[in-house]
Amino acid sequence: MRFAKLSEDYFMRARFRIKSAELAYSEKSYPDVVRHSQECVELSLKAALRAVGVEYPKEHDMSRILRAVKDRFPEWFRIEAEKLGDISRDLADKRAPSLYGIESSGKAPSDIFDKGDAEKALSDAKYVLNAVGKLLLELKVISED
Q1: Strand, helix or coil at 101?
Q2: pLDDT of the chain along its 145 residues, tens only?
Q3: All domains in the chain, ordered by first residue
Q4: 94 near 121, Cβ under 8 Å?
Q5: DSSP-derived 3-state class of residue 34
Q6: Which of 15, 33, 66, 94 is deepest in the core (most CB within 10 A)?
Q7: What span, in angstroms and rounded, lies between the C-alpha atoms of 87 and 15?
Q8: What whole-number distance in Å separates Cα of residue 69 and Cα of residue 84?
Q9: To which H or E segment does residue 127 belong?
């Protein structure tokens, strides 16, 4: 099934983004933590959507589509959909500022994002990654190896 292969690949890359976010955190590059965490969430949720055969829109925030198709997921994941969507929307909103800052205000990314922002982004990304990992294991898209 081609969706399973895509789902597995997206999830693998999401796990790599968490490692990148953790490295950025260790280097105190807090805007990069936010950016990599956002990418982790986006890839994780796209993996979940692919796993249940959903063609998602080509955008960064998966909250709308996740909520629209939540009935395709197991009950426990449906319950999580609201929180996962909120995390997706929050980090998608921070995507551009974490890379470019707010140019019209002359604010660099490091002026906008601090350690607390980085810790929340990383924690949220790990939450999404873990939920999607559990889903993909249950759907037999990935194995525990």
Answers
A1: coil
A2: 578 899 999 999 999 999 999 999 999 999 999 999 999 999 999 999 999 999 888 999 999 999 999 999 999 999 999 999 999 999 999 999 999 999 999 999 999 999 999 999 999 999 999 999 999 999 999 988 6
A3: 2-138 (1.20.120.330)
A4: yes
A5: helix
A6: 33
A7: 17
A8: 13
A9: helix 115-138
